[in-house]
Amino acid sequence: MPEADQIAEKTVLHVGCGSWRPGALHPDYEAGGWCEVRLDINPDAKPDIVASMTDLGPVDSNSVDAVWNSHALEHLYAHEVPIALAEFLRVLRPGGHVFMRMPDIKRAAELIVQNGPMSTAYTSPSGPITPLDILYGHRASIARGETGMAHKTGFTQESIAQHLASAGFVKVRALQNKFDLWARGEKKMEPAAAD
């Protein structure tokens, strides 16, 4: 049995963390053994690291065990998504994983056809969320001047899986759940050195 001081914590880089709030980190990382490092482009969010998803320069290559990205990737332009995913892959240790959650634009389109663009899809802590909010970002937040909340691209289950595979992730999975997509991919393990 290893000594207590030999048990190393794993590091999860919380990219696009926003201001600290309970429940922002996925419960899988709340369990013991994980150390959260918070990264956001907005210094007012008081992250550990101020950086963009498209330039994780302050984070060393092969230095984290997981990247958690929740409702943030859609705030990039479509041409920036491969850049961000390449950065996620770069900072992960071999065998590490990215775990992401984002709006499902296919589900939003279905809601628009079924109930109209201004219907309530669900109620969040920020208030009612419409299909237009799912597509373009929370309009009330944007109206208050939080323009970073605007969505600049969108994903389907198929498209996010393809983005991850194209970036070099393996064991890619993408699932639809209610109004969200959940996606996961791993960084390849390095081959064992030959003797």
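[next item in queue]
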Amino acid sequence: MALAALSALAAGTVFAAPAEATVFGQGISVHHDAHIAGDGAITLSGTYRCEQVSPMGAMQINATVVQEQGRQLTIGGEQAVCDGTERRWVAHAPGRFAGVRPGHATVTATLREVHFQGLMPRSLITVAQDTQDVEFHEER
């Protein structure tokens, strides 16, 4: 139930920072190459860096792929480890849901701080965002 509420909150973010914005030196990036497996599953990656969040919050990484006439896929919910170290993030989407084809796409990676009130998310704040042109390659 908390995950459903978090997804709903993510869809209607109260505050969204402009592209490539960072708060307090936190950041995220998208690698320029992505992969499509034989079954259509996709893999995106990049790097991120964040500091420890407040005791009532957690950091989450999401990625949105836009390809062909505005068709959009959002992957994510990966929990970020925030210790000031640059780390790699990887996002996967199963082929039956992805629908992404080889070639060009625009990918936006977002690092968000989620604040909870009990078990339910109270607010979602974008602290870093990066948008890149990405090339999807078929894995052989």
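[queue empty]
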